[in-house]
Write a structure and sequence with these properties.
The complex is a heterodimer of chains A (108) and B (471). Chain A is 28% helix and 3% strand. Chain A has four helices and one strand. Chain A has one domain. Chain B is 40% helix and 18% strand. The longest helix of chain B is centred in the middle third of the chain and has 23 residues. In chain B, α3 packs parallel to α4, α10 packs across α15 and α10 packs across α16. In chain B, β10, α5 and β11 form a beta-alpha-beta unit. Chain B is of the alpha/beta class and 471 residues long. Chains A and B meet through β1 and α1 of A and β3, β4, α2 and α10 of B. β1 of chain A pairs antiparallel with β4 of chain B, so a sheet runs across the interface.
């Protein structure tokens, strides 16, 4: 077996590792949601209002996080994301970080 | 997809030598700890100097390592926007967890290095009235919000000089905690010369945790810890007698608190061994605070302090290899925090859930700052002055903010002891940062010991550290 390039030693490092692998479902892995103001801007403005909730997509601004779930849930936002109605009901497990992990989504 | 990254703050340590050599990476923002293999170290060395890293520029083997570093949050997306500083913690939103009662601002000892001016914290020696003790104890429980656990600390001076207030505080805190459905922990720090069977029975019945101040073998202990009223009145023999009495009455051995002056720092390992052999549960060693310029250490003395602590850390490592825990409190606390990876945004709880009350019921940021008007933050009548706490903490942080921002250890240290900094800077006119070098070297020792423990993930020491981190 190939030796690991980087091995996590403490619990925080293991949480970061799980987060990267997508095994950890929430940002709580890093000690709870980051302490940021709740609420958000009214326009799509990816900035510091990072999604503090334990839901995907972690790290996006709240406005975009809300839109994202609007696509997969109640579908009020007309955009294409893998959603609960097609064959990717658990897309967030395979794809915790959309920007990085989208290749993991295999449509059949 | 983002391909351009920047380095987040981190520190590389080369731990061990020969076949035991390891390269460790400590991530500052998350207090995460990783071990790197040889290839990762080489790639890191090649790329670390670059301000930004574009993964598309990297060769395939380099990219593999850089991607692993990205997954470890060592490389983070380069963002043109600066993250705003996190909102400061609001003391008013943090319920009280611990109240230290200076039940006796008086002492039967006159330790040469005392930071409390013979126990009185300035002014006349005085005792807390039992009614003040009762009100303070109740205030602790009432101010504890939704916390399930509250801690009452009986302190002085020598708290056993005021048994009426001590009893009043314990009984009232128990009653108040029981009414509120909360759990109460009581602890007591004493010089060990005033135990009586009746008193020990009371402390046992109320499950009071005891810490005894003792500084080592007779010549080291008696060099500084003498009775009031004469330099020739030594205390070591009486403390040992007190310990014998304590053993017959208490179910659990006490913890030891050792204070050493710079001239004694070269004898740390023998002091530790001596105190441990007296039957203490664990031993914590405090380098004395420089209450006068005479107690400021020289460079050589600082080096001796580090050597002493490092020797104890090496002994800890040996004991741990055999599955045993060497009860050196300073290291245990550090390892427990490293084990979890807990991050500090404030150096301690002073003013943030932790307060001290003096004999008159005035609140102070912490027990060591009692009597310093600058750090008085309300009183029993007017309540806790959160605005003043905010000012105190902001003032304390201001002079070191810049140095901390650039320091890899900031998430483990967050600026160091307020009292120690106050003494060095406000009283003695030293530049800020006098303890930084020692703190960083000590943290590095802890990181290396922890990484060494990780060679055997099944070591029972981890379970111990986990329990300690949970409190």
């Amino acid at each position: 077996m190939k030796k690991k390039i980087i091995a996590a030693l403490n619990e925080k490092a293991r949480a970061i590792e799980r987060l990267a692998k997508g095994e950890e479902k929430t940002a709580a892995a890093l000690g709870g949601p980051p302490a940021m103001p709740q609420g958000c801007t009214t326009i799509f403005d990816t900035g510091w209002e990072t999604n503090p909730r334990p839901t995907y997509p972690i790290g996006n601004c709240q406005a975009s996080a809300r839109d994202f779930h609007g696509c997969a849930g109640d579908c009020w936002w007309p955009a294409q994301v893998p959603d609960g109605l097609t064959n990717h009901s658990d897309f967030d497990v395979a794809c915790p970080n959309i920007a990085r992990d989208w290749r993991n989504l295999k449509y059949e | 997809m983002t391909a351009t990254y920047a380095w987040s703050d981190h520190r590389i340590f080369e731990a061990g030598t020969g076949p035991d050599a390891r390269v460790l990476l400590f991530g500052t923002d998350h207090a995460s700890l990783f071990a790197l293999d040889g290839s990762a170290r080489d790639v890191l060395a090649r790329w670390r100097g670059r301000e930004s890293v574009d993964l598309r520029d990297a060769s395939s083997p380099d990219r593999e390592v850089l991607e692993a570093l990205r997954d470890a949050l060592v490389l983070v997306p380069a963002s043109p926007q600066r993250r705003p500083a996190p909102a400061p913690i609001d003391p008013a939103e943090i319920p009280l967890a611990t109240l230290v009662l200076e039940v006796a601002q008086a002492c039967n000892l006159r330790c040469a290095y005392c930071y409390a001016g013979g126990g009185s914290y300035g002014g006349e020696s005085r005792l807390m009235h039992p009614e003040v003790a009762r009100r303070a104890a109740r205030r602790l429980v009432e101010s504890s919000g939704d916390r399930q656990l509250v801690t009452l600390v009986l302190f002085g001076g020598e708290p056993l000089l005021n048994v009426p207030a001590l009893r009043a505080a314990v009984l009232e805190a128990e009653a108040a905690a029981s009414e509120a459905g909360k759990q109460l922990v009581v602890s007591l720090t004493t010089n060990g010369t005033r135990f009586t069977p009746t008193l020990l029975d009371f402390l046992r019945e109320h499950r009071v945790g005891i810490t005894v101040s003792i500084d080592g073998p007779p010549e080291i202990h008696d060099a500084n810890r003498r009775y009031a009223g004469g330099r020739d009145r030594r205390t070591y023999a009486d403390v040992v007698k007190g310990l014998a009495l304590l053993r017959t009455h208490m179910p659990k051995p006490p913890a030891a608190r050792v204070t050493l002056t710079p001239a004694q720092w070269s004898r740390i390992p023998e002091v530790f061994r001596h105190v441990l052999d007296l039957g203490f549960l664990e031993v914590g060693i405090a380098p004395v605070s420089p209450v006068t310029a005479a107690l400021l250490p020289t460079t050589e003395q600082d080096a001796a302090l580090f050597t002493g602590f490092a020797l104890l850390a090496a002994q800890f490592r040996q004991a741990a290899a055999a599955g045993r825990v060497l009860p050196f409190s300073n290291l245990l606390d550090l390892l427990a925090r490293l084990h979890v990876g807990s991050v500090k945004s404030s150096p301690c709880g002073a003013g943030l859930g932790y307060l001290a009350a003096d004999a008159e019921g005035r609140f102070f940021l912490c027990h060591r700052l009692a009597g310093e008007d600058e750090f008085q933050v309300g009183n029993l009548d007017a309540g806790i002055d959160h605005a003043k706490i905010r000012v105190c903490l902001a003032n304390q942080a201001a002079s070191r903010a810049q140095a901390c921002r650039a320091c890899w250890a900031r998430s483990l240290c967050a600026g160091g002891c307020h009292y120690e900094n106050h003494l060095r800077e406000a009283r003695l006119g030293q530049p800020p940062g006098g303890s930084c070098d020692f703190i960083r070297r000590w943290l590095e020792v802890g990181i290396c010991v922890f990484a060494d423990l990780c060679r055997d993930p099944g070591n029972p020491v981890f379970a111990f550290l986990g329990r300690r981190a949970d409190g």
